[in-house]
Design brief:
Blueprint lengths: L1 H16 L2 H10 L4 H22 L8 H24 L5 H8 L2 H13 L5 H18 L9 H23 L7 H22 L10 H29 L1 H7 L2 H12 L7 H21 L11
Helix pairs in contact: 1-10, 1-11, 1-12, 2-10, 3-9, 3-10, 4-8, 4-9, 5-7, 5-8, 6-8, 6-11, 7-13, 8-10, 8-11, 9-10, 10-11
Length: 299
């Protein structure tokens, strides 16, 4: 039952993360800069969760070792978001998404090389299928120039996000309450994006109307707070590799939002990509039923 919960958490995490365009694009279209959007996204989510934890009187104390690890995790998570967003300025978003989704391979290699994990044949096949599916989702059929700077930015996110997922699973905070861990990751991310504004000598741009504030609130709540919290729970319940593969639901959800909300075209290759991704997720779910691993209960 706990493994099933972990799989559900993984699907919820990647699916809600794929909703970022639904809430972020209307804000950007209203003239709010990307750097300000990122600060609001992490800042509002950290504030919401912090207030909830205080109301529930949760213990937020940390040891120095835990603080050091959480700072590292927060940096990895926020840098992934910042660098991936920045890479869109230099290379097509479809190419960036495809390259970024190499992170399950890095997660798998790290778990095998450093933690002696054994990856089943079924899971290996699912990884290959998931990457193929994401490629088809992002395939445009046109030849586009890929800048070296954009390529380096998105390749860096492959490493930072893989290290974040492995860190949540294998560091000394792996058994920490999921809400507490999520709060510190988001809080540190807020600091990172605040410093980013200062370094660039940019002022925080205000939302022009209530509709934009609502979109910022939903951006902070659903594809940030909910997504990261369920990601932490998924890693704690089913491990890094399985959670990474389930992340393929993220680009599929983003494409679905583009089609149904923003009226974008859906090609036959994208339909095939969706089918492959759903099959890959099905393989992960079926294969996980044959595995056993310790789980973490979160209240």
């Amino acid at each position: 039952m706990n493994r099933i919960k972990g799989l559900v958490y993984g699907v919820i995490s990647s699916s809600t993360f794929g909703l970022i365009p639904l809430f972020a694009l209307p804000v950007i279209q209203k003239g709010v800069g990307v750097d300000s959007v990122m600060f609001y996204r992490f800042g509002i989510s950290a504030l919401l969760l912090g207030v909830w934890l205080l109301i529930r009187r949760r213990d937020l104390r940390l040891t120095l070792q835990e603080l050091g690890v959480l700072i590292g995790l927060g940096l990895f998570y926020s840098l992934t978001a910042l660098l991936l967003t920045t890479s869109y300025l230099y290379i097509p978003s479809g190419i960036a998404t495809t390259i970024h989704f190499l992170y399950p391979v890095v997660v798998t290699l790290v778990m095998i090389l450093f933690f002696k994990d054994k990856v089943s044949l079924a899971l290996s096949i699912a990884i290959a299928m998931a990457i193929s599916g994401v490629y088809l989702l992002s395939y445009s059929g046109s030849e586009e120039t890929v800048s070296l700077k954009g390529l380096m930015l998105v390749l860096t996110t492959v490493i930072t996000y893989a290290f974040y997922i492995v860190g949540v699973n294998k560091s000394n905070v792996s058994k920490m309450d999921g809400l507490k861990l999520t709060f510190y990751v988001l809080f540190i991310g807020t600091i990172v994006f605040g410093l980013n504004l200062l370094i660039k000598s940019q002022s925080l741009e205000l939302a022009p109307d209530m509709d934009t504030w609502i979109h910022l609130f939903l951006l902070a709540l659903i594809p940030t707070l909910v997504s990261d919290f369920t990601l932490v729970l998924a890693v704690q319940h089913v491990g890094s590799t399985t959670t990474a593969v389930l992340g393929c639901m993220e680009p599929m959800m983003a494409v679905a939002m583009g089609v149904f909300v923003f009226k974008e075209d859906l090609s036959i290759w994208q339909l095939i990509g969706m089918a492959i991704i759903l099959l890959a997720v099905s393989i992960v779910i079926l294969a996980s039923g044959k595995e056993r691993m310790p789980v973490i209960e979160n209240n």
